[in-house]
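2.7 Reproducibility. Because tokenized structures are sensitive to small changes in the input, we list the exact sequence used for Sensor histidine kinase MtrB, including any N-terminal residues retained from the expression construct. No trimming or masking was applied before prediction.
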Amino acid sequence: MAGHGAAPERNEGRPVDPVGRISLYDRLRQGGGLLQDGAPGGPVNPLLRMVLRWVRRPLLAALRLWRRNIQLRVVASTLLMSLGVVLLLGIVVIGQVRNGLQDAKTSAAQSQATGGFKVAQDQADADARGEPGATAGSRAQLNSGVWLTDLVQQLASGGQGVYSVVALSSDTQQPFVDDSSGTRAPRSSGDVQPERSVPQALRDSLDAEPGTYMQHTRIIRSSGAGEPALAIGKQLNDVNGNPYQLYYLFPFTQEEKSLSLVKTTLATAGVFVVVLLGAIAWVVVRQVVTPVRMAAGISERLAAGLLQERMKVTGEDDIARLGESFNKMAQNLQHKIQQLEELSRMQRRFVSDVSHELRTPLTTVRMAAEVIHDGREDFDPVTARSAELLRGQVDRFESLLSDLLEISRFDAGAAALEAEPIDLRTVVDQVIEGAEPLAENKGSRIVVRGAEQPVIAEADPRRIERVLRNLVVNAVEHGEGRDVVVRLAAAGGAVAVAVRDYGVGLKPGEATRVFNRFWRADPARARTTGGTGLGLSIAVEDARLHGGWLQAWGEPGGGSQFRLTLPRTADGTLRGSPIPLEPEDSRRNREQAQDGAPAERGAIRAAAPGATPAPRPAPAVADPAALPGSGTRVVARGEGGRPTAGRGAGTGGPRQGRADDDREDGSGDA
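Resulting structure tokens (single pass, no recycling of outputs):
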């Protein structure tokens, strides 16, 4: 149980969205959508909600593993970066290889095509000069169709599988000597479809301007299959002077096989490199993480009280030096803790022994004081007053001695809980009956609310009566003659009793310090009134012994409220309190009601000690003394007399009268 046996409010410390006042992270964890029912775009489709819930579990598990395992993060990061480097390197290498193969293919194709064009033109010129005496018409009739076919076959005979030769008629308007159907038909080697394999743009370029042109294309076979290729063409004249277009088609089959081999090799090598780098990273990180995990486990065991735990140190490297330093730190801590434990045992034993030893002389002093007090009427006024003071201080000393004995039992862990089912209404009635004379003397009235129904809990009646007596007597003494309200409530597995006064209240930070032993609001003042200074310290220990909370709230000039929350059963666990810690009639709630904002009503849910406090609706001022788990809250006086809600502020307003300086945790013991 953290702090002073108290717990802060639940659902605190996490940012919320402005629409639903529910944290977005909690919505996703709970399987809900980002849009609420009734919000723009809602309600959420039930099927989508089901899919989100189905996907949420593995995602949360993976996210939790990712956040908790540094070795996984390092190895995954190494794999991703290695994969990126391998991919980038592969893209660069493949691009370089592709460009090299393409340049080599283009250079070889240009040389081959240039030689073929020269051979074709020389062949046409030689055939034209080798037939003296024949007319042009007769040469065309005998040679124009057959000559072009023979030329294509002759040129393609030396490049089987390396290139194909295609001859197409020219689309120029130059007249043909022989314009028969066979003269203008396309010709090709192999199973190439000439007109589909040669792009029209390349043919138009040859017709437009003489020269050698090339363009990337696809060779279309008779079977319909195609393959990428480079087409190089030139316009020539046949044996009869008729223009035609001669093309060399060079397929990239061999280059594609080479490039595919390079890709496969790079992919295989890349996979092996990435896996190898991941394995290396795993081994290296494991060598570093394993000692860290060992240190974390030993630290947890040290925190659990196993002070003899030590790290296993091997080698002389940095990790070994870290282990040695850790072991030295643990040894020093163990030595210091043992010294403190021994000192604490000596102090507890001293307090216990002194308290017991003082009982005998105190009994004698009390008897003498009673005799003197009974005969004070025969003394002079000064001596009679001294007799009264002597009796009062002896009573105070006896009360202090009893409290010291009780505190020593708590410190020694010897306090025993004798729980039984009790009705807190009965305990409250007994406490009020005992405090009535003091209330009448102070001009106060004690009002009980919520006593209509039984408030049953398994508790130690003696300890609960002592706690409530402290709270009620404190409220009466510091209530400045105003009413004191005692409220009872039960809900779920908890019961609560709250004592509200309307006196000077508490300054910022005092709500936590009020439970400290011998604490006073003004240390400069002498302790002349009130109890022993140990009342609330014993009360909070009694609350912890029951597994309950004792919490305080206050505001300067607005009074204070102390709330005792207990589980219904002796072995129960508290998850909330049926009474809000800040009363409904606090200054902040009243101003909210005047401004039209609803005040806090009903029980304020309280989390287990250690939760993080949530921000209040009003601007809060942090109080270093009100740490998480204390469950205390103080409202400081802001500028212009307006309060600012928070868990205490650095400095409070001016002192609110005499009783504020006399407020101390044990005033209820008088």
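The mean pLDDT is 75.
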